[in-house]
Design brief:
Layout lengths: L1 H25 L11 E5 L7 H12 L8 H9 L4 E9 L3 E8 L2 E5 L3 E4 L4 E3 L11 E3 L5 H15 L6 E6 L5 E5 L4 E5 L3 H16 L5 E5 L6 E5 L8 E3 L6
Helix pairs in contact: 2-3, 4-5
């Protein structure tokens, strides 16, 4: 019996010691004694609304310093417009620090989404989108391939004064592109970089013809087909231009 009483006393002592700690951690007590008084939003951000960030995390700070749910607050902040990454941490004695990384738009993705410079796709709703972004479209798993070909294509066409306005890859892996002069390029599935580089080299010769390109089919082994603006609708006309390189 004495052993039983000692066990009960030992368990009671543990409860009396741990219960206040649990109460503070769970937010049952201590919020008034260890309150979070400030929310500090840090990081390089131009479009993120700092007031909205503070308003979002404040409900999670009401339980006090020890009971704040950092993971839940972090998830809530990450859902705000323009937020690409969020980190929420406590700073003794009364500060909640929210570090945010905002999306930097690189291109449109489809009709209503954007691709960030870090390769993440996010909704455009509620976002003031910068003008002049190129348009991408394709499977999300191919976003890195789209960025790579876009950057390489811009370098190819820059010497002739053209830029890439749109780049697409369909579910079967076939590429197409729109240049800044409005010309549409059908590139195909294979050797996209090689075909684009060959066409870019021959563009100065085509410019001497004094006509504006409408559509170019590069899906030929040894050449391409052209359709000029103002010509009658129909298949592009096969054209051979001498590549002297």
């Amino acid at each position: 019996m004495n052993a039983f009483l000692r066990l009960v006393a030992w368990l009671l002592a543990i409860v009396l010691v741990t219960l206040p700690v649990v109460a503070v951690i769970q937010g049952w007590a201590g919020a008034e004694r260890w309150p979070l008084r400030r929310v500090l939003v840090v990081g390089n951000h131009e479009r993120v609304d700092a007031t909205m960030v503070r308003d979002t995390v404040l409900p999670y700070a009401k339980r006090g310093f020890f009971a704040v749910r950092l993971d839940e607050a972090q998830v809530a902040v990450a859902k705000l417009p323009w937020i690409e990454q969020a980190e929420v941490r406590k700073q003794w004695p009364d500060v909640l620090v929210v570090r945010v990384v905002e999306h930097r738009p690189f291109a449109w993705w489809g009709e209503d989404r954007l691709l960030s410079e870090r390769g993440r796709i996010f909704p455009s709703k509620g976002v003031a989108v910068p003008k002049g972004l190129p348009r991408f479209d394709g499977p999300e798993s191919r976003s890195a391939d789209l960025v790579e070909l876009y950057n390489e294509s811009r370098a190819m066409f820059a010497p002739v004064g053209l830029d890439v306005r749109a780049l697409r890859i369909d579910p079967r892996g076939s590429w197409s592109m729109t240049l800044s002069n409005g010309a549409e390029l059908l590139v195909g599935r294979d050797d996209a970089k090689l075909r684009l580089a060959r066409f870019a080299r021959l563009l100065p010769q085509l410019a001497q013809l004094g006509r504006q390109l409408d559509r170019v089919d590069l899906r030929y082994t040894n050449g391409f087909a052209l359709r000029w603006q103002g010509s009658s609708p129909g298949p592009a006309e096969p054209t051979q231009v001498q590549d002297n390189t």
